[in-house]
Amino acid sequence: MIELEHVKKTYQTDTGPVEALTDVSININSGEIFGVIGYSGAGKSTLIRLINLLERPTSGLVKVDGQTMTELSEKELREARKQIGMIFQHFNLLWSRTVEENISFPLELAGIPKKERKSRVEELVRVVGLEGRESSYPSQLSGGQKQRVGIARALASNPKVLLCDEATSALDPKTTDSILQLLQKINRSIGITIVIITHEMQVIRKICDRVAVLDHGTIVEEGLEKDVFAHPEQQITKEFIGIKPESDDASGSLDRFRTIYPDGQIIRITFDGRTRQEPVLSAFYGHEGIETDIIESKLIPGAVKGTKGEIVLRVAGPEAQIQSVLHAANLKNVRTEVLSS
Amino acid sequence: MTQLFPNVDWSGMLLATGQTLYMTLISGVFTFIIGLFLGLLLYLTAKDGLYENITVYRITSSIVNVFRSIPFIILIILLIPLTVIIVGTMIGASAALPSIIIGAAPFYGRLVEISLREVDKGVIEASESMGATRLQIIFKVLLPEALPSLISGMTVTLIALIGNTAMAGVVGAGGLGTVAYNEGFEANNNDVTFAATIIILVIVFIIQFIGDRVTRRIDKR
To answer: Which of residues 249-308 of A touch B (CB under 8 A)?
Structure first.
């Protein structure tokens, strides 16, 4: 659906050229939720603005839905943009317009007759759950409600792509969850392709299918969300996930634990979010003849998917029994690995 | 009344008030239109504007600065030839209009420019992302979003205009300024000057009151 080919963006500033994006190639499939994570200044905002050409790349190609955006005339570009909705960190609503007038705005721009606009707006108000607030002004709404207006407005022209520019960064965690759930619902129900840029790992974990990690203008890691989360390769990715560099938390307590309990194996269980209501630990605890202790656990409750995170265990007992427990646990969509024995 | 203001000719004062209101109203309308145009021109042609054009911006900006800097009383005299061409005479309320408008429009133009700059850049970006044309951005985003600020700027300008009409009165425009100067100051009738001043103050207060009310009504921020 979206292809960036060797895209470069250089800004001319008073102190000389600044490279925002050095060489970025991404391929985003139709209907997926694609996340881009990076620190501020990594080039995320530039990257997402290249997709609808709010920023023009210095070199490289941008294709959306088979159309090469970089080759379009101004008029063609305006038409193409109607296929790409966008929501923003600060919502960017027109405060002089009510909720329904804001949602109606892109339809007005497209010259759609009033009657059609009205019914479309009613439908969108329902989709984002703002019934009863149609004639409120943005200043009378909470942050979450404002973003719902933003989403409804972005969806008004039936776009194929929705770009989310730090769409939850100004919201509290609970509101973030509800907005992410709404985005996922929309993705599932109308199959819209969603691109999310964020600096919050939670956002990626909760709804993204694939993720790219952006650092200093290049993509340093990319893949399925669960793979990148389970096997982070780059230092920066580990930072986002919360694994501290070098003096790793787990290994610290691991050493400590070794001195207390010299026997047994240290085992890490990784939950990738697909596990749901399946007793994993009971396989260890319920097994005759083996002893199990939890050394450490880091679990992130998923908003929509299952639990994610990891638990580190010390397991002591006969080798054959431990192996059979590990085998049983592995069948339950979790990954176990023996860190030391 | 006759004791407090023994020398005031009230029917003359009424006529003068009418002339002042006439000058304020007509020059207000033209100042609004020309100022809006100048403000948009400045905003749109400035760096990173929708119609960025540094040459046009610099020229417009210089003209605005020059006319804003000339003291009004001197501007009236400088513009006498132009006034004679446009109005046909240099005496009377209508003759004061060109210089009042040319004095006030650049002032309001700057206020318009400031108001437009205060419109959230994010909203303009959002409109661009929705495929808005530049004209749609001007008429559906910039002007409506800036409206309360444009109105309060106009209130300030109108009050400055009244001051200018009074000054124009000194050089024969008529209105409350003429009454205060000719029949009050020159004839040593302080009560006449005083009465004219009070009427001007009342007009200023009414304009400020209406302006504030309208601004508050349409401001949904």
So the answer is: none
Total-model pTM: 0.77
Helix (H) or strand (E) holding A272: strand A265-272
Per-residue confidence of chain B (221 residues) as pLDDT tens digits?
Answer: 777 788 888 888 999 999 999 999 999 999 999 999 999 999 999 988 999 999 999 999 999 999 988 988 888 888 888 888 888 887 888 888 899 999 999 999 999 999 999 999 999 999 999 999 999 999 999 999 999 999 999 999 999 999 899 888 877 788 888 888 888 888 888 888 899 999 999 999 999 999 999 999 999 88
Give chain B positions within 8 Å (CB) of A163: 129
Contact residues of B toward A, CB < 8 A = 120, 122-123, 125-133, 136, 140-141, 144-145, 147, 218, 220-221
- Cα–Cα distance for residue pair B10/A136, rounded to 1 Å: 51
* Spatial CA neighbour of B91 closest among B178, B8, B31, B30: B178
Q: Give which of B116, B130, B138, B147 to mutate to test A binding, by max A Cβ within 10 Å.
A: B130
CB contact (8 A) between residue B218 and residue A96: yes
Q: What is the ipTM of this complex?
A: 0.84
Strand partners, B101: none
Burial of residue B4 (CB within 10 Å: 0-12, 13-18, 19+) is exposed
Contacts of B30-33 with C-beta under 8 Å, sequence gap 24+, read: B30/B97, B30/B101, B30/B105, B31/B100, B31/B101, B31/B104, B31/B105, B31/B108, B31/B157, B31/B161, B32/B108, B32/B154, B32/B157
Measured between alpha carbons, how far is A38 from A217 in angstroms, rounded to an integer?
10
* Cβ atoms of A84 and A192 closer than 8 Å: no
Smallest Cβ–Cβ distance between A139 and the set B129, B147, B221 belongs to: B221
From CA A187, how far away is CA A181, in angstroms rounded? Answer: 10
Contact B123/A84, CB-based, under 8 Å? Answer: no
Model pLDDT for residues A154-166, shown as the tens digit of each residue: 999 999 999 999 9
In chain A, which residue's Cα lies nearest the Cα of B219? A96
3-state helix, strand, coil in chain B (%, to 5): 80, 0, 20
A86 and B129: CB-CB below 8 Å?
yes
The answer to whether residue A79 neighbours chain B at the CB level (below 8 Å) is yes
For residue B168, give how far its alpha carbon lies from the nearest alpha carbon of chain A (Å).
39
**Beta-bridge partner residues of A162:** A85, A194
- Determine which helix (DSSP H) or strand (DSSP E) holds A173, and give its type and residue range: helix A173-190
Domains and CATH numbers, chain B: 11-218 (1.10.3720.10)
Dihedral class, residue B92 (left if φ above 0, else alpha if ψ from -120 to 50, else beta): left
Measured in residues, chain A has a length of 341
Is there a contact between A94 and B123 if contact means CB atoms under 8 Å apart? yes
d(CA B200, CA B140): 37
**Cβ <8 Å between B130 and A79:** no
